[in-house]
Amino acid sequence: MLLTYVDESYDNDRYWMVALLVPEGDLRSLHRALDSIVAKAADHYPVDRHAELHGHALVQAKDDWHRMNNKGRNMIRARIGVYGDAMKAIGAHDVRVIVRGLDLRAYRAHRPQVADAGPGDWPPPHEVVLRHLLEQVCAHVQVREQLALVIADEIDGADDHRRHFRDYQLDGTGGSISTTLPSLVDTIHFAPSKASRLLQAADLIAYLHRRLVSGQDGDPRARKANETLWSFVASRVAHQHCWAPGQSPD
Q1: Which of 2, 173, 243, 246 is most buried when burial is the number of CB atoms within 10 A of its CB?
Q2: CATH class given for the domain over 2-243
């Protein structure tokens, strides 16, 4: 069984979702490793040992990391160091990462062509990307003759997403590669990321990926730091694609 942790990150141009697939045998080890990283930070900095590993909060010194908001180079280095330790821990385990995206500009531009369609024919970005992500997770797991359970960060409309998941299992996901998701078991489970180190790991990957592909970091030093962080998990990426209407979903 692969436990599959899902989180999203988006801006005005693209909507991204990441699935972190973790084998049963690696769950406790990765959880302990991430706990240890936060505990180590708490020993040296004004951070609670239960602080959430959250990409935006770490980079911007917000929320659980707000007391590390000194703009001096040492404190910035310390926060990036925590981020780096977490990414190293993720990459050191036998995990796989699947990244799906939606080109929001193209999606919005395509909308007039279906302006008269009902709401179900023009789903929100989250639903579109989640469907594509589930298809890829299923394909990845099916080839390996395994099963996966999907756990996603809490989001408004969870009941709708569970209903859609059930519809996919009964009638297929639709489109050119319609599948009933035979390798995904039960339903989509939603949990607060605050309570799950593995959801936090998915968030760290999703946030970093979005920053890199968006090119929002104009400072070459920041860009290099992000590229270094990504290098710790790059070999674990099994699939990465951003879809725009008119293109193949793959």
Answers
A1: 2
A2: alpha beta
